[in-house]
Design brief:
single chain; alpha/beta; 7-stranded mixed sheet; 7 strands; about 25% helix; about 35% strand
């Protein structure tokens, strides 16, 4: 098989998989709780970012040219209104409509410390929640009524 033939085959597979990918993206965007993170990814000789958006039932990956606000919105949508669990990278605070954000960091003993970020008219309200095991980090999160 020639390199051009392989590239054509990959493009066709991507086109055929697009409807399934769009369905997964909608599941993530409509989920009540999503954990999002990004990591460096090389495309050719250029730096990109592999984004992951995870729910209890769905994992969505997207390769974006950056790791900024617009890239996060491309993954989660501009109108995401669920609970967003994220690390401390500030641009992952993607939407003013998110009901709550949990910013989590790992302590030296391996336990997560989480801050609940609640949007208010005067700006975000930051509340420190007790340390919780990593597997229960989002357990106490609730959606706005």
């Amino acid at each position: 098989m020639t390199p051009g033939g392989l590239q054509h085959l990959l493009h066709r597979a991507a086109r055929d998989a697009r409807p399934a990918y769009e369905e997964l993206r909608e599941q993530v965007r409509n989920a009540p709780v999503v954990t999002a993170d990004e990591t460096g990814w090389r495309v050719g000789a250029h730096s990109h970012w592999l984004w992951a958006a995870v729910t209890p039932t769905t994992t969505l990956y997207a390769i974006c040219a950056g790791r900024g606000f617009e890239d996060a919105q491309a993954v989660l949508g501009a109108d995401f209104d669920g609970v967003l669990v994220r690390d401390g990278w500030v641009v992952t605070a993607v939407t003013p409509t998110a009901s709550t954000e949990l910013v989590c960091s790992t302590c030296s003993d391996g336990v997560h410390i989480c801050w609940r970020i609640i949007p208010t008219a005067g700006g975000p309200l930051r509340c420190r929640t007790p340390c919780r095991p990593a597997s229960r980090c989002a357990t106490g999160a609730t959606r706005a009524a």
